[in-house]
Specification:
With 538 residues, the protein is α/β, with parallel strands linked by helices. The protein contains 18 helices and 20 strands. The chain is 43% helix and 17% strand. The strands form five sheets. Strands 11-12-13-10-9-15-16 form a seven-stranded mixed beta sheet, sandwiched between helices. Strands 1-6-5-4-7-8 form a six-stranded parallel beta sheet, sandwiched between helices. The chain has a three-stranded antiparallel beta sheet with strand order 2-3-20. The protein binds nicotinamide-adenine-dinucleotide. Nicotinamide-adenine-dinucleotide binds next to helix 8 and helix 9. Residues 32-479 form the Aldehyde dehydrogenase domain.
Length: 538
């Protein structure tokens, strides 16, 4: 693994087993943008070596040089190497969960369940299916029109993939792209979030010694390093993060005419219908809103509940929220900046008439934001319009499912939506009318962990696809390969253009539907005569 970094002095001893510790190759220049104070209590985090933006192009050049041989490595060999990551990942489960707890403030259980175990499934899925998914597929060609020709669609790697990721799931999100991208024969230059550089380095360390030099490398830093990576000689940018950054990256990629895959923010709604299993719906909604302290692109940030069951549902949600143990079930927020956004949204909603039913803002500057439930009437508040990305659950009462679908679709975000009902047939009909890229019935959010299920959105949630063969379609290019075994000296459509060829062209148009029955019969007769002339070279 490569890291073109400028090394920093690190804490003695603590750095010894730290995958993010500065490599011996570089020398200290600056501390970079990396926080060293853990969001939860504890020892300071180890310092991290920053990649200078000027060094990014070199990392990309090395990735490009390595990629060609990597793509030529037999697929089975590539798959065998990457399959080994699963064992390493599982063997380091506790270390990974502990680091995630330290760096992001996640409860250890949540870290292990969301960011370790699903990645084992991910590696199994891709290593088992990649051969079939990359296999060339034949294209049917009419043997009369195209004699002797056989067509195939191959899937070729894009080349060098730039991967830029956020801090909220800093192990799971990068692996979801790194694994299929490498299997498909790409090289990857990965820039983790500056908030979670140690988790990023840990991800890369899982591949240590398995890949040729340059095939997977890490660039550590903030927006300047990310921008340098987008501007470097990469063939695809896979980005997960905020709408604002996604927009900047889309513009930069458009200017360079390179494709980009954007997984952006969310404002997911849960639609709770009168015929739901109320206990399951309440428990599912509470988890969907507060897991990862609400710092989840697919957090439930709005609940639309049908009036008939609204009081009972709200009462149960409030009771369940009251049972959540701070620091055990719900961790601290990861950054002060995000906690400030959440506070602002909450205050504006309350100023607009929303009623806090559980929780409420903590003291200024605290990251321990209590899970908060609000009853909200008005949608014209940032809490309902923008992504909040924190442990706040606004509940809105609606008259019926129609109103809930209309309000859900009115958002500029469209990532996932859950429908809570026992009426599956009706739920399927409602799902077809939702804009979201993922719809779950009687569950929420967890499908991001399913490697065979596409994770995607619309509108401000971006258009990227993670997981499933649809993601592989982004990480590869289709190449059409035609093989012509015809022994004819010339093709019908080759030079010279003659009157017979013109007759053939128009007779074909009539024969293939451009004329009535009699016209078609006449065209066939004309065609036979003109084809014989053409065969004679006229
Ligand atoms: P962010 O946009 O601030 O940063 C994301 C990454 O982009 C970081 O690595 C950052 O350093 C880099 N970056 C910043 N400016 C850049 C630039 N100009 N050029 C290139 N790179 C740049 O987002 P964040 O705060 O880290 O993450 C939270 C956001 O991520 C939320 O909006 C959340 O919804 C979204 N998210 C989406 C999904 C999804 O699957 N749709 C999943 C997780 C998180």
């Amino acid at each position: 693994m490569d890291s073109k970094t400028a090394a920093l002095p690190s804490e003695e001893g603590a750095a010894a087993n730290d995958p993010a510790a500065p490599s011996a190759r570089g020398r200290a220049t600056s501390a970079g943008p990396f926080p060293v104070r853990p969001p939860a209590r504890g020892e300071p985090l180890t310092e991290v070596a920053k990649t200078e933006p000027a060094a990014v192009a070199e990392l990309v050049a090395r990735a490009r040089a390595a990629q060609v041989a990597w793509a030529d490595t037999p697929l089975q060999d590539r798959a065998e190497r990457i399959a080994k990551v699963k064992q390493r990942l599982l063997a380091r489960a506790e270390e990974i969960a502990t680091l995630l707890h330290r760096e992001c403030g996640k409860p250890i259980e949540e870290a292990a369940l969301a960011e370790v175990l699903p990645n084992a499934d991910l590696i199994d899925y891709w290593t088992a299916s990649i051969e079939e998914l990359l296999d060339a597929s034949p294209v049917d060609l009419d043997p009369l029109a195209y004699p002797g020709k056989v067509g195939r669609i191959q899937r070729d790697p894009r080349g060098v993939v730039a991967l830029i990721t956020p801090w909220n799931y800093p192990v799971a999100i990068p692996l979801r792209t790194i694994v299929p991208a490498l299997l498909a024969g790409n090289a990857v230059v990965f820039k983790p979030s500056e908030i979670t550089p140690r988790s990023g380095a840990l991800v890369v360390s899982l591949f240590d010694g398995l890949l040729p030099d340059g095939v997977l490398s890490i660039a550590q830093g903030g927006s300047d390093v990310g921008a340098a990576l987008v501007e470097a000689d990469v063939d695809l940018v896979v980005f997960t993060g905020s709408v604002a950054t996604g927009r900047e990256i889309a513009v930069a990629c458009a200017a360079r005419l390179i494709p980009t895959s954007l997984e952006l923010g969310g404002k997911d709604s849960a639609i709770v219908l009168g015929d739901c299993d109320l206990e399951r719906a309440a428990r599912g909604v509470v988890w969907g809103a507060f897991t990862n302290a609400g710092q989840n692109c697919a957090s439930i940030e709005r609940v639309y509940v049908e009036r008939a069951i609204a009081d009972r549902f709200i009462e149960r949600v409030v009771a369940l929220t009251g049972q959540l143990r701070p620091g055990v079930d719900v961790g601290v927020m990861t950054t002060a900046r995000q906690a400030e956004i959440v506070r602002r949204h909450l205050e504006a909603a309350v100023a607009g008439g929303a009623e806090i039913l559980a929780g409420g803002a903590p003291s200024e500057g605290s990251l321990a934001f209590p899970p908060t439930v609000l009853r909200v009437e008005r949608e014209d508040t940032p809490l309902l319009q923008e992504e909040t990305f924190g442990p706040i659950l606004p509940v809105l009462v609606v008259n019926d499912a129609e109103e809930a679908v209309a309000r859900t679709n009115a958002s500029r975000f469209a990532l996932t939506t859950s429908l809570w009902t026992r009426g599956y047939e009706r739920a399927h009909a409602l799902a077809r009318r939702l804009r979201s890229g993922v719809v779950t019935i009687n569950n929420h959010g967890f499908t991001g962990a399913l490697p065979a299920a596409p994770w995607t959105g619309a509108g401000d949630s971006g258009f990227g696809v993670t997981s499933s063969p649809h993601a592989l379609a982004e990480l590869t290019r289709p190449r059409f390969l035609l093989e012509d075994r015809s022994r004819a000296r010339s093709e019908l459509w080759w030079y010279p253009y003659t009157p017979a060829l013109r007759t053939i062209a128009f007779a074909m148009a009539r024969a293939r539907g451009g004329a009535g029955l009699l016209g078609r019969i006449g065209a066939l007769v004309e065609l036979v005569a003109a084809l014989s002339k053409r065969l004679l070279g006229r």
